[in-house]
């Protein structure tokens, strides 16, 4: 699956370029464009696409039963007139325009919400998700798809996915069918229209050329909050500067970003052990001693601030108290 292989692909490309042996590996190095300049080009292309393509709004919108084949995006006829305007609507009149900063460039991207999803919760940008999807280029070439639900970590995908999926809710439930398959009830369903800068940008990925805008139809079924370093601080909360990039948050300036650092303030006390609040669940044996009533900690290190300076203990090197003391 290209989404999951993105990080590996980048690593392979970098290794290939560093070898400098075009005769052996066949790689062609493409000079990286200025991200702001490329975004202007990409956005013009996306807006033009949205202005010249339409869907059957009467069939699709708020319909939790649609398939990817039902989500038919059609180009206007040569005369530029919208056929059957009582049912059909231009994409530009239906999409939501969102903005984000990525690699110091400002990006606009677009989402079509076909169905919000019936659950009360949504994925976080760093969660593990269960989805199905179909990825196409703007010329309708399908480059990746999985109709069967698949699981992947949003931190291992292109940037656009971690920004779009939190805008949708999970399915409100599921039914196990007699043949063992699972039907998800009222999932989040949408289409994302991404500039190349939130996709593969200057790296060709399989059949995806460099600087390609991407379109993904998708369904959101379930999500699971990731805690990559198992320190009881969900990974999305370790994005301290709020830029959707976990790799540049490093509270103690060591070699590990916070989301993979078991001691975020390097005070010698593990983050998970700086959870000192009273136990809020007397049915869970947190310390594994057979007695769930004598545990220290409520399972959340973010609400412990011993010296009251507004910095939780796990990020404050002045507070090194441990629940094991």
Structure description:
The chain has helices at residues 6-19, 22-25, 35-51, 57-60, 159-164; strands at residues 53-56, 74-75, 88-90, 96-102, 105-115, 128-136, 142-153, 173-176, 182-185, 188-194, 214-224. The chain has 325 residues and is α+β, with helices and mostly antiparallel strands. The strands form three sheets. The chain has a six-stranded antiparallel sheet with strand order 4-5-10-11-6-7. It folds into two domains: 31-224, Chitinase A, domain 3 (Roll); 228-325, no CATH class. 14% of the residues lie in helices and 23% in strands. The longest helix has 17 residues, at 35-51. The N and C termini lie far apart (47 Å). It contains five helices and eleven strands; from the N terminus they run H-H-H-E-H-E-E-E-E-E-E-H-E-E-E-E.
- Biggest β-sheet: count, sense, barrel? 6 strands, antiparallel
Radius of gyration equals 23 Å
Assembly classification = single chain
CATH architecture field of the largest domain: Roll
How many helices? The count is 5
Large-scale geometry: globular
Helix content: 10-25%
SSE sequence, one letter per element: HHHEHEEEEEEHEEEE
